[in-house]
Amino acid sequence: MQKDVPMLVGKVETRTELGRLLFKRTKRRRLKEGAIHGILLLCGLVSVLTTISIVIFLFTETMGFFQEVPIIEFLTGTRWTPLFTPKHFGILPLVGGTLLVIAGASLVALPIGLASATYLSEYAPDGVRRLLKPLLEILAGIPTVVYGYFALTFVTPLLRRYLFPDMSVFNALSASLVIGTMILPMVASLSEDAMMSVPQSLREAAYALGATRFEVTTRVVLPAALSGISASFILAISRAIGEAMIVSMAAGATPKLTINPLESIQALTAYIVQVSGGDTPRGTLEYQSIFAVGTTLFVMTLIMNTLGQLVVRYRERY
Amino acid sequence: MKTRDIFDRRFLARQRIGRGFRAICLAATTVGIVVLAMLLADVLWDGVGWLDWQFLSSYPSRFPEQAGIKPALLGTLWLMGLTALFSLPLGVGAAIYLEEYAPRNWLTRLIQTNISNLAGVPSIIYGLVGLGLFVSILALQRSILSGALTITLLILPVVIITAQEAIRAVPDELRQAAYALGSTRWQTTHYIVLPVALPWILTGFILAMSRAIGDTASLIVVGAVAYITFVPGSLLDSFSVLPVQIFNWASRPQKEFQYLAAAASIVLLVVLLTMNATAILLRNKYQKRSQL
Amino acid sequence: MPMHTDGAILETRNLNIWYRNFQALRDITMKIERHKVTALIGPSGCGKSTLLRSFNRMNDLIPYARAEGQVLFHGQDLYARETNPTEIRYRIGMVFQKPNPFPKSLYDNAAFGPRINGYQGNLDQLVERSLRRAALWDEVKDRLHKSALTLSGGQQQRLCIARALAVEPEIILMDEPCSALDPTATLKIEDLIWELKKRYTIIIVTHNMQQAARVSDYTAFLMMTEEGTGELVEYGPTDHIFTRPKDKRTEDYITGRFG
Fold first, then answer.
1. Which residues belong to any copy of the ABC transmembrane type-1 domain (chain B) (predicted)?
2. What is the Cα–Cα distance from C170 to B7, expressed in whole angstroms?
């Protein structure tokens, strides 16, 4: 009954005595209400307009680009040399660069993030958790340009001095390690949420069978939280794909198909940053090429995000 | 009873595995903290010696010892102000619409799904949209206005989502009490829901802004530049911001410029820390109040 | 190993339990007979679940819970420094208020305990035997590898019993095992309890007095003081408690005058 009250307000007012008395005021009121409703709806629609603009701008400029560069060459070419002649526009080296960095970052962030989540959710005493979580939040809040500075001026020199003397100044490895650190808090906090939402009754059932905390965690909690954990992995990787500053500053600007993380490469986002840094006029092929690369990036992250949402939807019932 | 013996014998081994696993998880948790400490130490070590009034009040220069961040710092403040001006009303408006007004239909679902999808779009893509829409089509040039509008689009999804959560947390009894007195939807929202939700809306908003302020990629694409020798005076002036200044200095080969980048990073981190601290203080203050 | 059918398997001596500063149980001293069903009854909040959970140290999982006194199992103090709670729990099984099967197959549910404890015999046989003892085998033998969540509530609860039986415990603790079930499913579980006491000692918490009267050999009546601390009011053979209680409070409770 109570829930229906808001719905009935308008009708009730006109049908009762009080409603008739207030009719004149109600009319003006209703006009105002309608106007406000409209304004708020417009606010809501801004987000839809944003999406439409993203699609329009990416695709029109990309279409312009494809009139100059055949789409087949773009998708299958293994050389990306837009800034000197002969120009080649094969996207694979940039995609390869991004994937190389992502692979390294995942190797760092996924296991460490999951283990951190496990500690926070299953082991840490209340006080310790209250101390650790804000620290991880700070880590998540460091601007990427500062991470880039850290990769370039700390991680790379450290690696070159102690581990890989022959590594180039710009290299995929430092970028991977630092991006891994950047997305680690995301993996940790989303996975922790997933593990915390596993009902306590399942843990109790396992404890009552003589399971140790390790067994409760690995055989009951982790499997039950699997969909949420997978989603955290996917979303973190998607975040890493879109990261621009660390790869621009630390991984270099040499588009190259390689699996050697000690070499300099160029990631998709780094190319956009490189070309936008100069003053590229609208209508040129370079200008269009950043939109083509942007479209590739957009499609990759869209696929990852959609996948993440699907995984969450198929979550285990308890 | 044979089973029992096996169980007992296995027991010690299981205890040991458990302790090992716990140690590994604890070690993993400290990795993030250790790297955070190293990062902060690195930036402080490199930059703190360059921090002085001269650094804060000078323009960028070819000579590192004369260079400063005045235009970048002011540019960041300008950008914060403008972005707040645009994104707060838009974001809260959208959140009010979705929580208090929207009927359960396809349009609402579309808007809601769309917002969560937008939150996952990389910031550099927003930069490209800003470049196409504000810089070129609307002919706002590579101006501070273009930058603020771009950042507004970037943080809008997060602002909307946090504001929605704040509004949703307002107890339904309050709304029903207001409706029962004959309030209209807007009166209920304006006089009852918003005042209760406001501290939480602001907390979420400040956190979203602190994210936006550190964003570099989208502003580079829209055209923030690092070499500006005047303070922005109008909305259509070209502009610089701290992150772009850091990027520019850090990318130079000379050590001195890298130290400048570290010094500018410290300033940026202090700005962010101030914003976060404000948000936390705000939250704590109102949390205590609502418990009374 | 010869067994005394009339001996005490579990004994508490001056057991006190606190949650932070709140005392949940005071001075509980009682003996639990082997191969019998003992019911713990009392109004809600009287600490009967807390007492049950102290028998396999499940209270350890609650932060700030602490116990004083002794719980002796075969003469060994469960709360002694050298006793490991995990070790106790595969000797003393537990069935919970709401059926809580793991989101795994029926087979994996029943095999969970033996697997983690390193069982090396024929797992299929053990699973079948446990399901048979829980009176579930005939209903589910064709779908052992389906998710346990496809079962009805009553079947889920019997699966949880089978899961507990599979580690061959000596005692089974049941915490209001029928409170989430319909009357038919309840009846099946009660029949099962009769069957199980041939091999196991059963301690059951119930808020349903008819159930206590139907299934148990001994009944303990607990009540809380005004501060909410639970105390053991009366303990004895079930027919004595229900037909001629010694304590006025027991009589009031049993005749439904409060609670």
1. 73-279
2. 14
